[in-house]
Write a structure and sequence with these properties.
- The protein is of the alpha/beta class.
- The chain is 41% helix and 17% strand.
- The chain has 20 helices and 24 strands.
- The strands form seven sheets. A six-stranded parallel sheet has the order 3-2-1-11-12-7, sandwiched between helices. Strands 15, 16, 17, 18, 21 and 24 form a six-stranded antiparallel sheet that branches. A four-stranded antiparallel sheet has the order 5-4-6-8, with helices on one face.
- The longest helix is centred in the C-terminal third of the chain and has 30 residues.
- The N and C termini lie far apart (64 Å).
- Bound molecules: 5'-O-[(L-methionyl)-sulphamoyl]adenosine.
- 5'-O-[(L-methionyl)-sulphamoyl]adenosine binds next to strand 1, helix 1, helix 7 and strand 11.
């Protein structure tokens, strides 16, 4: 331990079972950095988590016919599994639905209010529901949300506002005095030109049109705006405003927040302003990494390439995927992902360069029975690899400290390629034929093993499962695989003993593999249906008959039905439930039903559900529908002879 702390975070993810390899990018990069810092001896805190509140989740839960809490519990379990699969070594996992976090958010909101930075007003503006973001007219692109390009809606309601405009000057000063506050540097110009220069407006930080959020303690019909809730995770996870953790003093301010470029705005404007208002120190750096794209645009699970991280890890192993992500794309820029580039990279760098170097170096110790003799015969030709190996750690460290993962890996692979060339130059298989050449052979082999040791140490953060396998094969124990030892040549004992192992990365046949990937994708799709059902069934715990009796189910007839404006998935139904008053219900079934397919039909409604407002329309109850397969929903229609209002039990 070097006595220093290092606090690093990923964004907290929206609960989604559609996380793709692009989503994994940030978390893998953060993990590599956390492991690197631990290797250097830092006391590291690596935080990740999930961002679970907001209208989007409320709607998704409703579509799935479960409560928002049930919905997020199910999806978050899948996200944790994915991070496990990718060997993510986070120290904490925060959920914004955790009690301690919600308690802190309420205190933070109140504190900002008491300090005069939050005030009550009326909101009129443009709101993007999928992004949960408010925009000013001037920020819209062709009238649409500048982030996702989807239409925005007019919204007006009583709301609390954060005095963001009061921080304009202080933010400019922050950027001027700390030119490295944002990386890469280009992001700073983007923020200043697009957001700061046009003038910051106060930010609407509460909502009354839905309830799935943290209630404002002093005005509970308001819930806290999701970004205020989400950004604060970086301090609530340390115990700020709660008793769950006690290391705010120790770790705050964060050394770096890793975030995707599209959420830089929130992290470099709103977040520092909130911290300034709370009189708290600011994070030292926000790194906005680029996006992984597919040819033709954004990444999504439905497009041509296989982007499902579980399939990719299953086929190539976790370390190959981790390596590829950080080697293929410069961290700060966008990159094009394709299955072909992934396989080509694995073959060239991992199967050929690294894998061959390790297996050849180890195999060639065989004439000595696996243990090197100690007599040596150095030659001038050795100097080049020795000097490359001796200086590698320093170059690597410089790149790592700058978050230039790609360059750090390029340096390691320069040594690996040069070492492979050294094998060709020294031809150990010829040396082995004549015992007189054995001192020279032992020298060459020792040099190879030392290069492998040094490269292996520096690869550890990127390939935490492969590095120990390398060390095992070259017989390097923990005392000579520490980070420090990568800077010293000659630590392997002169009589090193090797252990032949399996190939680290088998070579892949590109054409066959691309076809097999397609098949794996189709199989995963097929499997998804029962898995989804099982997961949903798995949520339910046993309830008593009394609990069931609390749910009042009634037969009702659809009298009229129409789409809810600006909400693609919602239909608004007027039902005759046997009472004198028509019952209005909003349901997320528009993807599967047009109004005319419903009008006149009888169905079952949950009659005693508390009213909710969905996209500005009040809903009194819920209609029953079944998950009829992947992405298919069927309303439960009932026999036409059952009278409206009949109880279902
Ligand atoms: N919940 C917010 C973050 C709140 S942080 C206080 C959010 N969540 S997200 O699930 O949409 O995105 C999580 C991260 O994944 C973001 O950093 C985002 O940039 C990243 N990525 C999503 N798709 C990506 C790619 N195709 N490529 C690289 N990163 C991508 O935003």
């Amino acid at each position: 331990m070097n006595g220093k702390t290092f606090y690093i975070t990923t964004p907290i993810y929206y609960p989604s079972d559609k996380l793709h390899i692009g989503h994994s990018y940030c978390t893998v990069a953060t993990d590599v950095m956390a492991r690197f810092k631990r290797l250097q001896g830092y006391d590291v805190l690596f935080l990740t988590g999930t961002d679970e509140h907001g209208q989007k989740i409320e709607l998704k839960a409703q579509e799935a016919g479960v409560t928002p809490q049930q919905y997020v519990d199910q999806v978050v379990a899948g996200i944790k599994e994915l991070w496990n699969l990718l060997n993510i070594s986070n120290d904490r996992f925060i959920r914004t639905t955790d009690d301690y976090h919600m308690e802190s958010i309420q205190k933070i909101f109140k504190e900002l209010y008491d300090r005069g930075y939050i005030y009550k007003g009326s909101y009129k503006g443009k709101y993007c529901t999928p992004c949960e973001a408010f925009w000013t007219e001037s920020q819209l692109v062709n009238g649409n949300c500048p982030d996702c390009g989807r239409p925005v809606v007019d919204a007006e309601e009583e709301a609390y506002f954060f005095k963001l405009s009061a921080f304009q000057e202080r933010l400019i000063k922050l950027y001027e005095e700390n030119p490295h506050f944002m990386e890469p540097q280009s992001r700073m110009n983007e923020m200043v030109n697009n957001f700061i220069k046009p003038g910051l407006e106060d930010l609407c930080v509460s909502r009354t049109s839905f309830t799935w959020g943290v209630p404002v303690t002093f005005d509970p019909k308001h819930v806290v705006y999701v970004w205020v809730d989400a950004l604060s995770n970086y301090i609530t996870a340390l115990g700020y405003g709660n008793d769950r953790y006690h290391d705010f003093e120790k770790y705050w301010p964060a050394d770096v927040h890793f975030v995707g470029k599209e959420i830089m705005r929130f992290h470099t404007i709103i977040w520092p302003a909130m911290l300034m208002a709370l009189d708290l120190p600011l994070p030292k750096k926000v790194y906005g990494h680029g996006w992984l794209l597919l040819e033709g645009g954004k990444m999504s699970k439905s497009k041509g390439n296989v982007v499902d991280p579980t399939i990719l890890v299953d086929r190539y192993g976790v370390d190959a995927i981790r390596y590829f992500l950080l080697r293929e794309f410069p961290f700060g820029s966008d990159g094009l992902f394709s299955n072909e580039s992934l396989i080509t990279r694995i073959n060239a760098d991992l199967a050929n360069d690294l894998g061959n170097l390790v297996s050849r170096s180890v195999a060639m110790v065989k004439p000595f029975g696996g243990t090197l003799p100690t007599e040596r015969q150095p030659e001038p030709i050795d100097e080049e690899i020795l000097s490359l190996a001796r200086t590698l750690k320093e170059k690597y460290e410089k790149h790592m400290e700058e978050y230039a993962f790609q360059n750090a890996l390029i340096e390691i692979f320069k040594l690996i390629s040069r070492t492979n060339k050294y094998i060709d130059e020294t031809a150990p298989w010829t040396l082995s034929k004549d015992p007189a050449n054995h001192p020279r052979l032992a020298t060459v082999l020792y040099n190879l093993l030392e290069c492998v040791r040094i490269a292996g140490i520096l690869l550890t953060p990127f390939m935490p499962s492969t590095a120990p396998r390398i060390f095992e094969q070259i017989g390097a124990g923990p005392e000579i695989t520490s980070y420090e030892s990568a800077g010293t040549w000659g630590l392997l004992p002169a009589n090193a003993t090797v252990h032949k192992g399996d190939a680290l990365f088998p070579r892949i046949d590109v054409a066959k593999e691309l076809a097999a990937l397609e098949a794996a994708k189709a199989a995963a799709k097929e499997k998804a249906t029962p898995a989804k059902k099982a997961a949903v069934e798995g949520i339910a715990s046993l309830i008593s008959i009394d609990d069931f009796a609390k749910v009042q189910l009634r037969v009702a007839q659809v009298k009229s039905c129409e789409p809810v404006k600006r909400a693609k998935k919602l239909l608004c139904l007027q039902l005759d439930d046997g009472t004198d008053t028509p019952r209005q219900v909003v349901s997320g079934i528009h993807p599967w039903y047009e109004p005319e397919q419903l009008i006149g039909k009888k169905l079952v409604v949950v009659a005693n559900l508390k009213p909710a407002t969905l996209c500005g329309v009040e809903s009194n109850g819920m209609i029953l529908a079944a998950d009829a397969g992947e992405n298919d929903v069927k309303v439960i229609f009932v026999d036409d002879t059952i009278p409206c209002g009949a109880t279902v039990r």
